[in-house]
Amino acid sequence: MSSSNQKVIIVGGGPVGLTAAHALSRAGIDFTLLESRPSIVIDAGSNLVILPTGLRILGQLGLLETFNAVSSPLGRIRRFDHEGNDIGDANFFVHHKENHGIAPRVVSRHDVTRVLYESLPATIQSRLLANKRVSSVATTASSVTVTCTDGSVHTGSMLIGADGAHSFVRSQMRDLALAADAPAAAINPAQPFLTTYRAMWIRFPTQADLAPGDANETHGRDCAIQTFVGEETSVIGMYERLPAPTQDRLRYSAADEEDFVARWGDLPLSDEVTVRRAYESRVQAGMVSLEEGVVPNWSWGRMVLVGDAAHKFTPSTGAGCNNGMVDVVALVNEIVRALDGGDDVETAFAEYQKARFQAVVDGCAGAGRATATATWMNGIFKFVDLHVMKRKAVQKMLVDRAAHEIASTPVLECVEDGELLTGGKVPWAQGAQSRTALAAY
Length: 441
Prior knowledge:
Layout: E1 7-11, H1 15-27, E2 30-34, E3 47-50, H2 52-60, H3 64-69, E4 72-73, E5 78-81, H4 92-100, E6 105-108, H5 109-118, H6 122-125, E7 128-129, E8 134-139, E9 144-148, E10 153-156, E11 158-161, H7 168-179, E12 194-205, E13 215-219, E14 223-229, E15 233-246, H8 254-264, H9 275-280, E16 284-294, E17 299-300, E18 303-305, E19 311-312, H10 319-341, H11 345-374, H12 379-388, H13 392-407, H14 431-438
Parallel strand pairs: 1-2, 1-11, 2-7, 5-13, 11-18
Antiparallel strand pairs: 3-6, 4-6, 8-9, 9-10, 12-15, 12-16, 13-14, 14-15, 16-19, 17-18
Helix pairs in contact: 1-5, 1-10, 4-13, 10-11
């Protein structure tokens, strides 16, 4: 197979789908991206934390300088309990910079999608189609055909599902596997994720004692808050433990938001600002479920999943979007190798999942533990949060323990530019070196 007669259909135009558009463009592979919303760039959603792994990918794509202009570096995190008592700073982001030469950065979803979209040439932007909600997928041994609700039909040689936790592509993979009488192990659960927490996010004008660049957390029984402060607006994410975990999809109304604020409105975001004060001055707000889990099968035939469609983390560690971006890099590397070497796409998909699966299982578990600790799920988690995690040596040990694995995440092999992130204590692995190192974890 050669890349000249291959075309990829990407379903989903969020940060992960747009990263796929960039990566495929760099690899010289044709594609069409289908986004169900009316615009690729929308002003909605909470903020994202981009970790060194994600920043390295943006650097490879030539976007780091532009991205830095719309994002803020993260350093020390101040931590409070529900009564506003200081429970010790967290310096995880500081140690990330020491190890990898760059600090994690916080950015609005709007700005990261805008940077990814506007940096594409006009000829490439024309392949990104909004208002394209997929209604069905049909496959053959050599092609995938996607039909949208507006009647348009799009055919390619493979399909990448970057369409989030409630992925339509994933449900179509399951239906096709069932129709083919596939072995039970090859059929994904209809509801693969478990929801233990719900979240409310609030964007509000930066005010009072909140200073641009601040990062604060509020911890306590059943509810934790992360606050990121920007020049003009600040964003909080509040994570509330449900009475019981559920696999059902939950939706929330404005009344649910009001009830949420009534329960937790007095919690502090800083010495002077409470949740209620932030909500009353809000620019935007919303509630969502925080699904968790890893889908057992990431591909079926010529269809493959990336990002939240394949694995869903709680936001506490900021790892979800970053892992989706790394998925894209690992997947495109395998696709290019398959096309160059004459191998089949299904083998490339299997190798991609093999390379990424354990990393996301571990990442999902780590995010869940972080949320359980911050919400004091039980007495052990409370003790760890108040008496163990405040210790600077423990924080450094945890970051250092993951440093070599972070430095071994894959890079786009079709981009030959030199390493942009330097100055850290732990050198980044490159190309085949990265693949070899990753196999050790």
